[in-house]
Amino acid sequence: MTTISTNRRSAMGLFGASILAAGAASPAVAQNRARGGDLGAAVTAAHHRHQGFAEGKNADYIPALAAVPSTYFGVSAIGPDGAVHEAGDTTQLFSIQSISKVLTMALVMKESGQQIILDSVGVDATGRVFNSIDAIEQYRGKEMNPLVNPGAIATTGNVKGGSPDEVWNKILGIHSDFAGRQLEVNQEVYKSESDTNQRNRAIGALMWAYERMPMDPLVATDLYTRQCSINVNARDLANMAATLAFGGRNPATGRQVIDASLVPGILSIMATAGLYDDSGKWLFRTGLPAKSGVGGGLIAVSPGKFGVGTFSPPLDEAGNSVRGQRAIADITTALHANPYAQFG
Question: Are 81 and 242 in contact (CB under 8 A)?
Fold first, then answer.
């Protein structure tokens, strides 16, 4: 027998062994594949299908957002093993915007418990636009939620700290812990928003007048504006969503960012108020708790299965990323991930 034939036989043996090993996946992995297919394949297919879709337009009420190229499109998802499955522009940085509301809400719950959210701003959908002043006046700043601007500013105003710098370090810290890396502020976006946030300043003053937060309203509004200007990418958003999907533990770093007991409450608010005026339509379509930002970002959580983050700046009339919604809906369908459709 020649050396060549021996090596060939050895190679064939190794090849056969690798096939057997691949086929002998753990029962949990095999069950996940049978129920939901492959996460990576679903991400790639969703990105490919919607890459050329051109509906929607960038947010233009913040000048810096209008200047972002509308062609960017990235999809990233993370399962329980921490592996990243992604396609497209997943490392392109952009401002997190309203997705930050979820993480600052998590910080306040972590510091002060869930009851403070119920007592200060509530957990109900308002039925009004996200920056409604009428909604504040109707119930004196209550009966809303932390994902509309009045509730979000008041939630930021309930972060504990002896100085604005201490509060800010906590806010940036929890965003970084969720992302699994140190994040920074997009100074251009921060300046652009600070120059045009007069309505939010009025909202902050009203929420303070109704005693929904102890912090000076101008300080709270500035900190809120800064948190919305944190730079992230689609991969960061996937890590954030996956941290919620797996009980507050970041699957990339292994760090327990928040206690698992806080996650159900956070997800319930995301489910009912995460996509502005179209939250009900989104939940009807996918069943997934989600949160969008006018910078083009979108996160969605399939509890126990995966977290997904997308980036595509063009928005629909409700302020949600058009391609992001389409991609996540496709992934949810492909993986049978709707929590309301789990019948054994």
Answer: no
Strand partners, 86: 76
| Contacts for 136-144: CB closer than 8 Å, 24+ residues apart | 136/203, 136/206, 136/207, 136/210, 137/206, 140/210, 141/206, 141/207, 141/210, 141/211, 141/212, 142/210, 142/212
Size of the chain in residues: 344
The four Cα atoms 70, 300, 278, 69 give a dihedral, to 10 degrees, of -10
Write the secondary structure of 117-137 as one string of H (helix), E (strand) and C (coil).
Answer: HHHHCCCCCCCCCCCCCHHHH
The structure's pTM equals 0.89
Residue 12 has pLDDT above 80, yes or no: no
* Interval 230-269: pLDDT, tens: 999 999 999 999 999 999 999 999 999 999 999 999 999 9
Phi, psi of 336 (to 5 degrees): 50, 50
For residue 98, the 8-state DSSP code is G
**Domains with residue ranges and CATH for the chain:** 36-339 (3.40.710.10)
**Do residues 234 and 294 touch, judged by C-beta distance below 8 A?**
no
CA-to-CA separations, 337 to 76, 77, 286, in angstroms, rounded = 16, 13, 8
213 vs 73: CA distance, rounded Å: 38
DSSP assignment letter at 281 = H
Q: Estimate the share of the chain in helix, then strand, then coil, as percent rounded to the nearest 5.
A: 55, 10, 35
Per the CB < 8 A criterion, the answer to whether 332 and 286 are in contact is yes
| b/e sequence 54-87, b meaning 16+ C-beta within 10 Å | eebebbeebebbeebebebbbbbbbbbebebbbb
Place of tokens 């009966």: 143
| Distance in angstroms (rounded) separating the CA atoms of residues 219 and 127 | 28
CB distance 42 to 274 below 8 Å: no
Place of tokens 């509309």: 148
Is residue 201 a contact partner of residue 221, using CB atoms and an 8 Å limit? yes
